[in-house]
Amino acid sequence: MTSNIPLEIEKKAAALRKELNQHNHRYFVLDDPVISDAEYDRMMAELIRLESEWPGLYSLDSPSARVGSTPLEKFEPALHALLMLSLDKGFSKEDLIAFDQRIKRALKDDRQIIYTAEPKIDGLAVELVYINGRLQTASTRGDGRTGENITQNVRTIPQVPLVLPGKISGEVPEILEVRGEIYMDTPDFAKLNAARAASGEPLFANPRNAAAGSLRQLDSRITASRPLKLFVYAAGRVSGRNFAQHSAFLSWIRDLGFPVNPLIRTKISLDEAVAFYEELDLLRDTLPYEIDGMVVKVDDLDLQNRLGNTARSPRWAIALKFAAIRARTRVVDIVVGVGRTGALTPVACLEPVNVGGVNVARATLHNEDEMARKDVRIGDHVFVQRAGDVIPEVVKVILSERSGSEQPFVMPMACPSCGGGVVRIVGESATRCLNSACPAQVKANILHFASKGAFDIDGLGKKLVEQLVDTGLVSSYADIFVLKPEVLEDIDRMGIKSAANLVAAIESSKKISFSRFLYALGIRHVGEHVAGVLAGYFKTVEKIIDVSTDASYEEIKSIPGIGPEIAASVISFFKNPENRETIRLLFERGVAVEPETVRTAGPSPVLNNTFVLTGRLSTMTRGEAKKMIEAAGGKVAGSVSSKTDFLVCGTEPGSKLEKARSLDVKILDENKFREIVSGETGDE
Ligand code: IVH
To answer: Is 125 in the pocket of ligand 1 (CB under 6 A)?
Structure first.
C-alpha cells in the first residue's frame, strides 16, 4: 500500500509525527511546551489531512490516533510475562523500621540498606509492552498473571509514548515492559464531574474511580475525552539491559520519555525514608493528584533478587499507607450539636461516603475557629478523614470545586436546643450554652451516665432518653432511679416486657464501683482513666465529695497523672450545690458505691512506662496506638529492650515478640491494651 505514496509525502508525514511526538512529550510529560497550542493544532491538522488523503500512511502509532477508534465487543485477556505482584502494607514509621529489620535479618547482614521511596499514586496499575520501540500491548493488572487488554484506550493517553525515541539508533530494547499507574488529576476530576452533573450523568466517587471507569470503556473515543495521566514506577522484562539499581532504571526510563514522579527520592537511608513518609503525609493535600501512601523499595537489584518474593508480594518493597483514611464528599448542611458540657459543635452533614469500610454521613467541624480556618461552607466538596475510633472530621475544602453558590455558616447566637444565650469565654475555643437545664445537655449527660463504662444500663438508648426528657419524666440522671414500669409503658412503642426489662436493668446497675460512679457523673476532663486514678487515690466516695477547699485543689493536683485543669474541674463540680443535691438523690434512691477493687493500684499502668508495638492492630493504626500511649503519659520505643515495660502485640507479630518473651516483658493483646489506655481523653 505504502508503495504508491510519494516519498516526499511519506517523509513529510514522518517528520510531522516525530515533531508532534516531541511536542507532545514536552507538553504532557515535561510540562514545558515550546510551541503554542495553535501551532500544535496546525501541525496535527496537517498530519490528519495527509493521512486522510493517503490512507496508506495511517498507523496506530501516529499521534493522530490518540482520538480513539472503533468500539470493542469486549476486552481480551492479556498475559503478563512476569507476574504483576502487589505490595505488602504497613501503616506507620514503626512498620517501616520493622521492614528494614526484616530485610537485614533475611540478608544476614546488618549494613545500612539503600532505598528508593516513591509516592503511592492512587490510580490503576497497568503494564505497557513495547516491541522494538512500539507500543504493542497495554493491560490491567487483573489477577497478576492475566489482565485485560486495554491497548486501544491506553493509546489515547497523551503521556503514553506510542513510539520510543532512539529506535532508529538501536538504543531501544527489543522487548521493554514498563509498569505504572494511570490516574486522574484532582482538578481534572472536578471538571469532569461538574460536566457530568450538568448533563445529568452519574458522578464518579473519586479520581481513582474516574480513572478506572475511563480506562474500562469499550469505546476508546470516550477514554480519549478523559484527562488521564501516567506515572511509571517499575520494570517488567527489559531485554539486553541489566540495571544495577532501581533508581538507575527510573532515570533511564525517564530519559526515554516516560513520566516518572518528580517527588521520588532515590538512594536514601531508612531515616530519610521515615522523614519522607512524614513529609509526604503533610504534602499530600497540596498535590494535584491523590496519593494514599508511600512505596519504599530496596534500590539494589542484586539485593532485590536475593530477597525474592512471597506468593503475593516482593520482600524488598513495602507500601506504607497514611494512618488516616480519607474520602471526598460534599457538605449538604451544617448543623450545631450541643454536648454534655454545653459546648456547641458545628457538624457537617455529608452526602454519605464510605471511608475505609465505614459509612460516614456526619463529620465534626470542631468549633468556630476551626471552621473559619478551613473555610467550610454548605455545598463545598471536602475531604473527610477517619482515624480508628475517632469521630470523622472534615480535613479540607477542595477549593477547585467551588462554584460560587456555597453558603458560609455562622455560629448561632442562641443555643439551638434551649434557645438560651451562648457565650464564648476568652481563651476557649468552644462556644457554650450556659443553661445547665438545657435539654440537649441533660440528654447527653443521661446518655453518658447510662453508657457502658458508667452505669451500663441496657436499653436506655438515645431515642428513649430523648423521649424521657422531652416528656419531662426525667430531668437529671437521678430521676432514672424512680422510673416505674407503668409510666414507661405509656411511652411510645415501649411494651410491657421491655419496660420491665429496663426497670430491672436500672435496678441491677445500682451497685457500682467507685471509678465507674465517678466517670458517670460527667465531670469535665474526667474520662474513664482519670476516674480510675482518682478512685484509686481517694478510695471512698465520701472523701472525694468533700473536696472543696484550696488545700484539696493542691492535693488533687499532686496526684500523678492529674493536672491543674482536672483538679479545678473536680473541685468546682463537687462545690456546685446542684451537683451535690443530685448525688444525694442518687444515694437516697438506692445507688451503692462499692470500694474500688480493680484500680486500687493507683495511676494507670501507662504512665511513665515504655511500650513497643508489633504486628497489625485491627481497631486502630499503630500511629493511633502511639498517640493514645503518649496521651496517657507513656512512651513508645521502636525495639524491645530490658527497658521495655509492655509489648503490644497485634496479628502477624514480628521478631519483637520472641525478644519480649526472652526478656520476660509483659505482653498485651489488642483488647487488653485497649482496656489499659481507654477513657484517656476525658471530656472535651
Ligand atoms: S510498585 C512489585 N510503586 O500500589 C511492585 N506500586 O499493591 C509493584 N502503586 O498494584 C508495585 N504507586 O497499583 C509501586 N510508586 C509505586 C506505586 C505503586 C502506586 C500501586 C500499584 C500496585 C499497588 C500496590
So the answer is: yes
Domains and CATH numbers, the chain: 7-67 (1.10.287.610), 89-321 (3.30.470.30), 326-415 (2.40.50.140), 439-594 (1.10.150.20), 610-678 (3.40.50.10190)
Q: Is 491 in the pocket of ligand 1 (CB under 6 A)?
A: no
The dihedral formed by the CA atoms of 119, 123, 125 and 127, expressed in degrees to the nearest 10? -100
**Contacts of 294 by beta carbon, 8 Å cutoff, 6+ apart:** 117, 118, 119, 120, 273, 276, 277, 280, 319, 320
The total number of residues written for the chain in this structure: 684
Per-residue confidence (pLDDT) for residue 672, from 0 to 100: 84
Give the model confidence (pLDDT) of 419-454 as tens digits.
999 998 888 888 999 898 899 999 999 999 999 889
Local confidence band at 263 (pLDDT 50, 70, 90 cut-offs): very high
> Does the C-beta of 120 come closer than 6 Å to ligand 1?
yes
- Considering only CA atoms, which residue is closest to atom 13 of ligand 1? 125
Whether ligand 1 lies within 6 angstroms of the CB of 90 is answered as: no
| Amino acid identity at 182 | I
Alpha helices in 363-425 (DSSP H): 368-374
Cβ(83)–Cβ(145) under 8 Å?
A: yes
Mutate to test the pocket of ligand 1, among 84, 86, 87 (most ligand atoms within 8 A of CB): 87
Dist CA 409 CA 378 (whole Å): 7
Is the pLDDT at 673 greater than 80? The verdict is yes
State the Cα–Cα distance between residues 563 and 173, nearest whole angstrom.
Answer: 68
pLDDT, tens only, 378-390: 999 999 988 655 6
Three-state secondary structure call for residue 39: helix
Active site residue 484: no
Q: Tell me the average pLDDT across 161-167.
A: 81
Cβ(181) to ligand 1 under 6 A?
yes
- What does the alpha-carbon distance between residue 96 and residue 296 come to, in Å, rounded to a whole number? 8
Count CA atoms within 13 Å of residue 4 on its CB side: 5
pTM: 0.61
For residue 391, give the C-alpha cell. Answer: 469521630
Q: Which of 74, 89, 120, 635 is catalytic?
A: 120
CA-CA distance, 582 to 584, in Å (whole number)?
Answer: 5
Nearest partner of 649 among 603, 675, 618, judged by Cα: 618
The answer to whether residue 550 scores a pLDDT higher than 70 is: no
